[in-house]
Amino acid sequence: MRRRVVGHKGIAGLGLAQWPWLAAAVLLAGCGDASPAAPAARRPLYFDVKGLMTQQVEQLAQRQAAVTKQVSLRGNATETVRVPAVKWTDELQIFYQADINKAALRGAYAVDSVVLPGGLLRRTYTRLPGQPNAPVSTLTVVQQGPVAQEIAATIVQSNALFSAQKQLRLELQNGKLSRYEVIGTQKLVLFDTLHYAAAGQVE
To answer: What b/e string do you get for 43-75 counting C-beta neighbours within 10 Å, with b at 16 or more?
Structure first.
């Protein structure tokens, strides 16, 4: 396992800028709610991932948090790096893809809630059949009261030339992001399936 220290770089700064999945992430990020007709004050129907991520990015940037990351690609040895200066807007951009509160997705998910030991509430949002514009197939949120403790999402994208699936996971302590993880596969026509994983431990 290799370990190094880098500065002023996010995920793309780990030599991952050339990874095809990052290109897919950019494409998916462009599928956000661009409808200017959506009511500005409309209350989110589902858990507000976008609002949570914006809050976390602001907090992390304000306290200038560092991160230690582990990255692997195509089954190669895991590379560990410490990033003392992080551009959190870029670093966590991929997690905004778990947002299911876009206007076009209202009514696209079934909601199931389970009370866990210790008073935790686990709420699972499952995509209903016939929702081609909903890349998030499942979103699971564990909360202690109004405070999120853990968020996990599965995102699936497929068309004639490209297919991809990724698992996103966030862990929070006392309302602050402590760890995040992305595990995924990507397949382009005429190319082998790409397997990748990246995880970050916030300091």
So the answer is: eebbbbbbebbeebbeebeeeebbbbbbbbbee
